[in-house]
Amino acid sequence: MATFLYKLGRLSFRRRHVIALIWVALLTLAGVGAAGAPAAGNSSFSIPGTEAQKAFDLLEQRFPGTSADGATARVVFKAPSGEKMTDPGNKATVRETVKELSDGSEVARVTDPYQAKAVSKDGTIAYAQVSYKVSGMELDDASKDALEDSAQDAREAGLTVEIGGDALQAVPHTGSSEIIGIAVAAVVLVITFGSLVAAGLPLLTALIGVGIGVSGITALASTLDLGSTTSTLAMMIGLAVGIDYALFIVSRYRAELAEGREREEAAGRAVGTAGSAVVFAGLTVVIALVGLSVVNIPILTKMGVAAAATVAIAVLIALTMIPALLGYAGRKVRPAGEKSRLFGRARAQDAPAKPNLGSRWASFVVRRPVAVLLLGVVGLGAAAVPAASLELGLPDDGSQPTSTTQRRAYDLLSEGFGPGFNGPLMVVVDAKGSDDPKAAFTAVGDEIKGLKDVVTVTPPAPNKAGDTATITVVPASKPSSVTTENLVHGIRDAGTGVRADTGANVLVTGSTAMNIDVSQKLNDALVPYLVLVVGLAFLLLIVVFRSILVPLKAALGFLLSVMAALGAVVAVFQWGWLSGLMGVEQTGPVMSMMPIFMVGVVFGLAMDYEVFLVTRMREAYVHGEKPAQAVVTGFRHGARVVSAAAVIMIAVFAGFIGSSESMVKMIGFGLAIAVFFDAFVVRMAIVPAVLALLGRKAWWLPGWLDRALPNVDVEGEGLRAASGDDDGDRQLVRV
Prior knowledge:
The chain is α+β, with helices and mostly antiparallel strands. It has 23 helices and 11 strands.
């Protein structure tokens, strides 16, 4: 591995014009494809294998032309103080609005509140349901404008009017904080390298890689049904790893220059050593992201694969374009320890090197491993406590900021019709196998009326064939409550009895039921996913470190950091701690996909720091240093760079906290805090403490396994042997 990458690094350095041209051409090609592609919308949300999805598919078959996946809008009216919606003047205004709404070419139907009995008991609130023939992201601007204009006309007549539903949904934006994250990354790079040119290389290559990845996703969005969130998450992860991977190679290049090597040779060795770590770190991230496909939720699979592709591009760019750009930079990238004139003079060559902060910290940990280990574990354990009260759900209009019309419409409906009105359940009765379908429909409705927590049960609405009917059930509790979840299970249990009596099949669907099924599916998939991803990465790390205990320690440390991060997410987004600082206007359940997505991404990123930091320790150990001294050596060479990489990644992820999309905001915060816990508590404190306690046992590997494993030479030993660097004065340690 190291020898191949060494040759690739030297080739890229020499043929820098060709390498640069290839990547610029790819960026241009992707950009042209993205410019000519239709805008990405929200990916179609389907959950194969769930009852809610089966019911949805059945509706499309038995009720053709109803546009089950079309956009909807609820235009909610509230009468002025002291008036009612049934007053003649208000009634005329509403009916005029309904007439205006019906004129649109994309409108499928509009319900009249007075005919549909959609007026609250106190008469102050009413709503009209608008159904469209196309999805919310496919709606023409003219249809959206007509919807808003109709509402504005009713407002001018004296009514309070708000619009809920997905008809007015827009592509989320991330805000200026994303730019701030990149700016912070730039400052950290300048401080780390002491040179504007050296600092600019990782930023430039990361932006090119993300540009290719995101443009490719945008170009394929319509063909592959990729949602707008897919490109945002790919950008988030691609920027973070792209900067980090390039940072490690540039840092190693400067270290090789400091040892007196020529620039082409230094570039080759940097790619051969640090590049090997980049390859394996990238592989762990790709495994974790692609592994999300085991959950069998298409939108999650697409997000994972798209982000994995962007990570793969970041790895390739770091291995090829970084040495090419180093060739262009020439002497402007200085050896480690030297700074450009802008940042002060270089250290004299004959001046003794003082122990840096990383060395001093590692020495302290090696002297006090038990205290550091206990403090780190207890601290992360305390941060993980809120995770015990984790509640899962999917975002709806109730999680929108109070400044939006969707949220105000949600609140008005709750006020007028009860908290469960925003999460109605749709019961689909398939009576195709029943001898008396009408009796079956009636039996299902009567059975549901006898259940607890039911406010309203509408009469069965059969299709034209008369073999299938829908029944709308309004719960008494809010959509995300445990009581509503119990009601869904209660209806399904009651349906089992009805099927035995009548032969009709009862299915429950709707957004609330879908959320419940998604949460259950994700919970069921979490353990298999962990086994797959952690198992594959564990085997990969055994090959890299040629050790059993080091990969095991890496996996256990990851579990600590991810649990602590989940605890922080619960504290902020569910409990409301620091919610104002994070821009969280509405607390509620944590997004259902958050735990498993965080597990996948954080595991991959956690292994990045494990590989970059511990490979330096192993490199020192196999060249004869004692275990404790190898830990200090690893920190002397790697702590500064790993710390800088972590700060950069935290800054990039934190930049997405400013997103208007609640899912992106939550993931940005979760990943940022997870990287903080993993890099600065687990890798910088717990890892050296455990290695100090284990001593030589940390690097133990059974002889039979050592012989069976391929030698990937991450430490670049083949390069040393080929060049005679060791000069026979250092004997390799067999581990």
